[in-house]
Design goal:
Blueprint lengths: L7 H7 L4 H16 L4 E5 L2 E6 L2 E8 L4 E4 L3 H4 L10 E2 L3 E4 L10 H13 L7
């Protein structure tokens, strides 16, 4: 869904109070915990987390899922062990209502993405 927000706070205020809000806020907490130096902003009408070199993650609540966008998931998790069981695309990880984020390895994936980015590795598309 596209939100007509101008700040991250506006975006969060516009979220429906349902499972998508809870899921998105949980992923947001993980990103902020694992990457406290990342700046939260809006980009492409989604929440974005990055630094002066650009964004590392985007978060968005869709109609049927919450999306965590990364540059190229296989550069972060080549064997796919951290994303096993999740609905993924090249740079998108989709969380549906039935997925309990706390029972996945997405926290390790987020941490690995941040570490690789800080080490100067290319994790982009």
């Amino acid at each position: 869904m596209l939100y007509d927000a101008t700040t991250p706070e506006d975006y969060l205020e516009q979220l429906d109070d349902d499972w998508r809000r809870e899921t998105l806020l949980g992923l947001r907490r993980l990103i902020k915990q694992k990457g406290p130096s990342l700046i939260e902003r809006l980009n492409y009408k989604m929440l974005a987390y990055g630094d002066s070199r650009g964004n590392v993650f985007h978060l968005n609540a869709q109609k049927h899922y919450v999306s965590l966008y990364v540059g190229n998931a296989s550069k972060i998790d080549p064997g796919g062990e951290l994303l096993r069981g999740l609905n993924t695309g090249k740079g998108c990880i989709r969380f549906t209502k039935s997925v309990d984020v706390s029972k996945t390895l997405i926290d390790a994936f987020i941490e690995r993405a941040i570490v690789r980015r800080e080490e100067g590795e290319d994790i982009g598309c």
